[in-house]
Amino acid sequence: MLNKRFFKTKDEAEVTFEFSHPEAEQVCLLGEFTDWQPVPMKLNKKQGVFKFKQRLPVDQQFHFRYLVNGDIWDNDHQADGYIANNFGTENSIVNTQRIN
Fold first, then answer.
1. Which has the closest alpha carbon to 92: 18, 78, 70?
2. Are 12 and 58 in contact (CB under 8 A)?
3. Where do the AMP-activated protein kinase glycogen-binding domain residues begin and end (predicted)?
4. Residue 88 gets which letter from DSSP?
5. Greatest CA span in the chain, whole angstroms?
6. Contact between 63 and 82 (Cβ < 8 Å)
């Protein structure tokens, strides 16, 4: 799940990435904005959801995926869209277009 917060005085959006998976002990976020390097997400034990906040420039879209337990790739099932990648699967898309 993606939650976005836009700022009136900044050209960036704060995106909270939230992800849950029944087998997840560890989840990393990878995307264009991390140079496809894994960034560990923090587990909110009360909610059973892994979370990570990232500020991104507005009016752009970025590809990303989740890596579960170091070997299971998954997409955000409520992403803004999906696009084919070079590995025969799809990447999730987060869109930071400001909606008025």
1. 78
2. yes
3. 15-97
4. S
5. 41
6. no
Evaluate whether 92 touches 64 at the Cβ level (below 8 Å): yes
- Cα separation, 98 vs 59, whole angstroms: 6
DSSP-assigned beta bridge partners for residue 40: 28
Within a domain: residue 15? yes
Query: How far is residue 46 from each of residues 4, 84, 94, measured CA to CA in Å?
Result: 22, 34, 26
Domain extent, residue 43, equals 2-95
The CATH number of whichever domain residue 24 belongs to comes to 2.60.40.10
pLDDT in tens, 25-70: 999 999 999 999 999 999 998 888 999 999 999 999 999 999 999 9
Q: What distance in Å separates the CA atoms of residue 54 and residue 50, rounded to the nearest whole number?
A: 14
Taken in order 74, 70, 95, 22, is the CA torsion positive or negative?
positive
- Please give the Cα distance from 21 to 13 (Å, whole number): 26
